[in-house]
Design goal:
five-stranded antiparallel beta sheet; 11 strands
């Protein structure tokens, strides 16, 4: 097991996992959303895909024991453990400069899209475009008429998910900088992770 690694508040981190290794992602303060991506380490054009995941699971909510699938419909991660209430989001795109401009920002605002690419560059990688992330702990309630809400996370401090690599992969995590809607309780903070055998 590695030491705890910080996903900085409003920033991102990338980690290399060999097939069979686990990544324990910890919601240290309980209210932080972590946008999460995974890429096949041998072919970065294959990545964890929310569209394909929803079809394979017949659900918009992945949970403990579920495989997470790529755009080639292959399992890339297993959600082996989840100590939270299991509220995660597969619908919403990563925040970006355009989202913040539409919310009224007139200056640059840190965002998950830029965090993805910055974290990959730290390990000498990059990808074209930005796949839709698995938004860990993001609470987007869907009403019976199909409308979506933006609510604070229901997880508590110390909740974690254990993701088990099904292939050699790159996992990227962004401690979402969103402070203009309630998803991070208005206070983006750091999260942590560990690589485990």
């Amino acid at each position: 097991m590695t030491d705890l690694i910080t996903i900085p508040a409003r920033g991102g981190k990338a980690a290399r996992l060999a097939a069979g290794q686990g990544l324990k992602m910890i919601n240290t303060h309980g209210h932080q959303v972590v946008d999460t991506w995974a890429f096949n380490a041998q072919d970065m054009s294959e990545f964890m895909s929310m569209e394909h995941l929803r079809q394979k699971l017949n659900s918009i909510f992945p949970g403990q024991g579920d495989y997470l699938y790529t755009n080639k419909r292959r399992p890339i991660l297993l959600m082996e453990e989840d100590t939270s209430p299991g509220v995660h989001d597969t619908l919403m795109a990563a925040c970006d400069i355009h989202r913040y401009e539409q919310l009224g920002c007139t200056e640059y605002h840190a965002n998950c899209t830029d965090n993805l690419h910055a974290a990959l560059r730290e390990i000498d990688l990059d990808v074209d475009g930005t796949p839709s992330p698995l938004n860990m702990w993001m609470n987007i309630p869907i009403s019976s008429d199909g409308t979506a809400g933006w609510e604070p996370a229901v997880s508590k401090a110390g909740d974690y998910v254990m993701l088990r690599a099904q292939m050699d992969c790159i996992v990227v995590m962004s401690a979402c900088p969103q402070d203009m809607v309630p998803i991070n309780a208005g206070d983006p903070v750091e999260a942590h992770f560990q690589i485990v055998a």
